[in-house]
Amino acid sequence: MRQSPRLPLPTKASHFLSRKQTEVNGGADATATWTKARTTKSIGDVYNTLATMAGRRARCMFCGDSRGTDIEHFYPKRRYPVKTFVWPNLLLACAGCNRQKGNRLELDDLGYPLLIDPTTEDPWDFLFFDSATGWITARYQ
């Protein structure tokens, strides 16, 4: 995992996300609205921007190993429909990481996510690389 600075979206895609989020906020089903929107050119522009953020090979923003193929909702759309079409909530993930995360997002006692968002946090602030073993472990503070 590496930090991926968030890039601005093309204006048309940004307006599209805003319109769709307004629909969801007005009572439309978030999952159904997302499913229908996935085939649009604007969501294609969202994917392309995420792929650019993920580097030359468009790697998964979680594992950094596989190709990012899915637009992932950091805050799951079923539990947080108010964030379904919010640009800072969208990441690029491989199918394996997307399935692994699913609709889960564990929070600490203060309501902060226990999962690293690589667009807002530097993963190495939370991870330690042991050069003797080659293992990466959680950094305890």
In terms of DSSP E residues, the strand content is 5-15%
Provide mean pLDDT, rounded: 91
How large is the radius of gyration? 16 Å
Can you summarize the main beta sheet?
A: 2 strands, antiparallel
Q: N-to-C SSE series?
A: HHHEEHEE
Helix amount: 25-40%
Straight-line N-to-C gap: 20 Å
- Secondary structure class reads alpha+beta
| Total DSSP E strands | 4
Strand order of the largest sheet: 1-2
Oligomer: single chain
Helix count from the secondary structure assignment:
4
Morphology call: globular
Spans of 5+ residues with little confidence (pLDDT < 50)? none
Quick take:
By secondary structure, the protein is α+β, with helices and mostly antiparallel strands. Helix content is 30%, strand content 11%.
Description:
With 141 residues, the protein is of the alpha+beta class. Helix content is 30%, strand content 11%. It has 4 helices and 4 strands. A two-stranded antiparallel sheet has the order 1-2. It has a two-stranded antiparallel sheet with strand order 3-4.
What labels would you give this structure?
141 residues; alpha+beta; 4 strands
Task: Please describe the topology of this protein.
Layout: H1 11-25, H2 30-37, H3 41-53, E1 70-73, E2 90-93, H4 95-101, E3 127-130, E4 135-138
Helix pairs in contact: 1-2, 1-3
